[in-house]
Design brief:
The protein is mostly beta strands. The protein is about 10% helix and about 55% strand. The chain contains one helix and 13 strands. Strands 1, 2, 3, 4, 5, 6, 7, 8, 9, 10, 11, 12 and 13 form a 13-stranded antiparallel beta sheet that branches. Strand 7 and strand 8 form a beta hairpin. The longest helix has 24 residues. The relative contact order is 0.19.
Length: about 280
């Protein structure tokens, strides 16, 4: 065999292997666990009894703040979570979280964007079987403890499938009790639509809001976010990502000396990787 033919054969084999890999990934069955096609909106389904899953969250939002020298600059605020989910029954699911929010020493006044450093525990319960009721219904209760507060959280999870579309919404509220004194209500409603024509790739669009109420008035927000989402599923591994525009601050606000820093930047990105067992 001539050397050109040998070269073609040597190149063909890795190309065939790569093609076979992507073909297998694209036709792979959805994860047997509980993928999150919408990063902020919980769906109705729960893990089957005895199944477990680990989910890794990353949240990123750029902030334009005053640094330690009083000069304006960019700070990439971030928060990371590790969640372990377990199916207690086919309808009741346990979730345990560890949250971490890094500190940027160059921006000591950077505001928190999430739960900070701490732990969370939650239960999610779904009623009936999917499709039996006009709207699938589940409820969610969570307790969170971190370095600044204890938080009680509740969600009502609504879902309906219409043709190839999954429509989901969360009625989401929190009560925060601060260690330094005082408390606040936090509202975080979410909603989204997912196009489920393909098992391995499902695009969507999602909306979410964040607002903190003290003494009957909004002390923060309400801030509104909207953006595209997508989930990739490869057997027992899935990867969900959403990129959201901050509708209140399409143009990034300049920092003002002596004012409260803006906790949310012009965009927000959340990505979650799930691995089932």
């Amino acid at each position: 065999m001539s050397s050109p033919n040998l070269l073609k054969l040597s190149l063909r084999r890795p190309l065939l292997a790569l093609t076979a890999f992507w073909a297998a990934a694209l036709i792979a069955r959805p994860a047997a666990a509980n993928p999150r096609p919408l990063p902020f909106t919980y769906i109705y389904e729960t893990l089957p009894r005895g199944d477990a899953e680990v989910e890794l969250y990353s949240d990123l939002t750029p902030q334009r703040l005053l640094d330690a020298d009083g000069s304006p600059g960019w700070h990439l605020a971030s928060q990371f979570q590790v969640e372990v989910e377990y199916g207690i029954t086919d309808r009741l699911e346990l979730g345990l979280y560890l949250t971490l929010q890094p500190v940027d020493v160059d921006f000591p006044g950077a505001p928190d964007i999430g739960e900070g450093n701490g732990v969370k525990q939650r239960l999610r319960y779904r009623f009936a079987d999917a499709g039996v009721w006009p709207v699938d219904l589940a409820v969610y209760g969570e307790v969170s403890e971190n370095q600044r507060e204890i938080e009680l959280e509740g969600k009502v999870i609504l879902q309906r499938r219409v043709g190839p579309f999954r429509i989901a919404a969360n009625l989401w509220a929190e009560r925060e009790y601060y260690f330094h004194g005082g408390s606040a209500w936090v509202l975080n409603p979410t909603a989204g639509i997912v196009f489920e024509k393909w098992a391995s790739f499902q695009p969507g669009i999602e909306y979410w809001m964040h607002g903190e109420i003290e003494n009957g008035e909004f002390e923060l927000g309400p801030d509104h976010f909207l953006g595209p989402t997508a989930i990739l599923q490869f057997g027992k591994v899935w990867w969900s990502t959403g990129a959201y525009v901050h509708l209140n601050q399409v143009n990034t606000p300049a920092p003002v000396a002596g004012s409260e820093p803006v906790p949310f930047g012009p965009v927000w990105v959340r990505t979650i990787v799930g691995i089932s067992f």
